[in-house]
Structure formats: structure tokens, C-alpha cells
Amino acid sequence: MTFVLVFEDDEFSQEIVQRALHRLGISNITFAADGAKGLKMLDGMVPPPELVICDIFMPGKDGIEIVNALVERKFVGGLILVSGADMQYLHIAKTIAISHGLHFLGCISKPLRDDELENALLQLAKP
User: Fold this and answer.
1) Which whole-number Å values give the CA distances from 81 to 7, 46, in the listed order?
2) pTM, whole model, 2 decimals?
3) Is the confidence at residue 103, as pLDDT, over 70?
4) 12-58 pLDDT tens trace
């Protein structure tokens, strides 16, 4: 069973992600509505999540800061980045993730679509 930590401050987007993951058979989901609080949650998770889905624009810490924090923590799970706004920030976060060896699974524009999420999740099994 895949355990997922979702960094997403928008309640409507949380609901969309949760429904999409449930349709894909994933029900072990934890949401963090604030980047800083989410990192504290991550630090306390044993075992760590197998997948992080991260919005780029959030209070506390943004998606780029989250990606840097995942690098610092040597996170080995998969990473999916999501944004409904400026794609330039999404590209910067993607570049940081890939250049530091995170298991980057993809970028998804909001509103999230099931097929895009499913395609990214297929990459989770790949090294």
C-alpha cells in the first residue's frame, strides 16, 4: 500500500487529489496545508511516505523550499509537483529535484486530472 503525503493548502484541491488517489486504489493519504508544518509532519513519519505530492505555492514554505528540504533529508520516495499558476516556478522546482537525484515522477497542472496522476504514479515503480 502506498503512503502519500500531500502538500496542498487549497481545500478544493485537496479533495480533488484525495478522490483521484482513491480511484487509483490509494487511501493512505496525509495532507499538509502549510509547507513548514508539512515538513515537521514528514520528519515524524516512520516509515516515511513513498510519495510526496507538492503544490508549488503554499504558506509557510513554498514548493521550491519543500523540494530543497526533501534533498536535504535524502528523501527516496517519489515526487510529483503540482501548480495552478506560474509554470516557471514549477520548472525551477523540477530542475532542483532532478539535479539533486530525487525520484521525480512529473509535473501536473491544476486542475489535476486522474490520467495525469496515474501516468506519474506509473513512474513510482521505476528506479
Assistant:
1) 10, 23
2) 0.93
3) yes
4) 989 999 998 998 889 999 999 999 999 999 999 999 999 999 999 88
Instruction: Check whether 97 has a pLDDT greater than 70.
Output: yes
Of 56, 51, 83, nearest in space to 68 by CA: 56
Amino acid in position 109? S
Contact in structure between 40 and 16 (CB atoms under 8 Å): no
Alpha carbons 30 and 93: distance in angstroms, whole number: 22
- Provide the grid cell at 125: 515503480
Closest by CA position to 17, among listed 111, 89, 97: 111
Eight-class DSSP state of 112: P
Cell of 106: 512529473
Residues 22 and 87: their CA atoms lie apart, in Å, by 27
**d(C-alpha 39, C-alpha 32), whole Å:** 8
**Cα–Cα dist 60/42, whole Å:** 14
Query: How far is 32 from 91, CA to CA, in rounded Å?
Result: 22
SS3 of residue 98 by DSSP: helix
